[in-house]
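P.,

For your records, the input lines for the assembly:
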Amino acid sequence: MKLFLKVWKQEGPEDEGHFESHVLDGVSEDSSFLEMLDQLNEQLLGEGKEPIAFDHDCREGICGTCSLNINGYAHGPENSTTTCQLHMRKFEDGDSITVEPFRAKAFPVVKDLVVNRSAFDKIIQAGGFITVRTGSAPDGNAMPVPKEDADLAMDAAQCIGCGACVASCKNASAMLFTSAKAGHLNMLPQGQAEKDSRVLNMVAAMDEAGFGNCRNYGECSAACPKDISLDYIAKLNRDYGKAKIKKVFS
Amino acid sequence: MNQSSLLKKYLMALTGIVLVGFVLVHMAGNLQVLIGREAINAYAYALQNLPAPILWGSRLFLLVCVLVHAVTAYQLIKENRMARPRANEIEVTKRAGWASLRMGLTGSLMLAFIVFHLLHFTIRAIFPEYNDMKTTVGSPDGSEIHDVYSMILAGFQVDAISIFYVICMFLLCRHLAHGVSSMFQTLGFRSERWRGKLDLAAFAYGWIIFAGFSIIPVLVIAQKYGLVNCLETCGSSCSVNL
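Structure tokens returned:
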């Protein structure tokens, strides 16, 4: 297939940035979107030009490293799919495709399509530790966890931290990420001891990083490659309210 | 300003609940126009003559709620704009609806509407002659009281004003369609199981409020052009501003 690509080019965080147009021919429809970009970079190198920088790692849809806003959609128009798992058969021969970085103040562009998502790491860090008994391995069923709770916690823990929620949110809010990361611990007995401080600190770190506010659009969940539900945002709101009230009256 | 994002959202939801409740009570009160001159006049007289601390306490409380709702919304929107300094080249929307995307627009217009509405019917600064509309109908002791019924008829005789009110009630309907459902999410009382039901309830609530408020200007205009004949006549005081 032949594609007309409009790809974001930016030298560094301070650079203004601009779009560059490329024509790429002979793309296999079995290739992934990232393989298509590899092919474009081969072509650019052959022309003596600088290749386009983009993030990628496992290419199996589980690491959360790939990003890209493709034709306006974070990770492309397919539901529940990361960019690395998006295949060119989803596009038509002769399509024009616009590729941009995930745009948010909290995700500064490092170069071209690579953004710095360490604001997410700061939110995770702010979550702190959980108190566990160290030493010999605990008995398998010493701590009972209801199956439903374990399933819900696991659903939240599926978050790969890719940032598609921020990129797709009209307000560049990180609520879905923060709620998933706080939620999977808050739902389990192991996470109860530090639940309140975790919620308060993670929300503070989220605000500090300069993400926008949640307006309950639902765009984040629609773009999430792991289908994290808005329920976790409601749960974060609930847990935050409880923690705040407890703090005020403590 | 240094409140956390979630506290601001809580403020939006809590003041929102107050205002959502207020519009329902206001609408129910208004619908007494359909019962007749006596009902609405007596109701308005009773409200106006509540003990001062209750009357002014409620008014102040509602005003504070509106101001907190508006100022917090302004802060949130400002932060939201700063959170994405460069817009996406292509902006697409997968799930968000018309109402949720335009809460700032519908909210700002509602704020302007509230100012106009207070000047129009409460302070009566736009048409001071409304103050001269007096009647004994609906009065508890036979003394002259304000003729709210005639004022409403006179107020909506003007086509442009009635159209403006109906448009504003449509905007309120859209604002509520997102807001009423969204406040449950913000306060943490929404789940996938409830989402559909709450969205439907908010949608219905918005349209009920729209219908309940709009029916009065619509009937006044319809009667003006002879399409219906269900309202009492305006009385001599009505001609004051026509």
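Two observations worth noting. The CA atoms of residues 3 and 95 of chain A lie 5 Å apart. Chain A has two domains: 3-110, 117-248.

Regards
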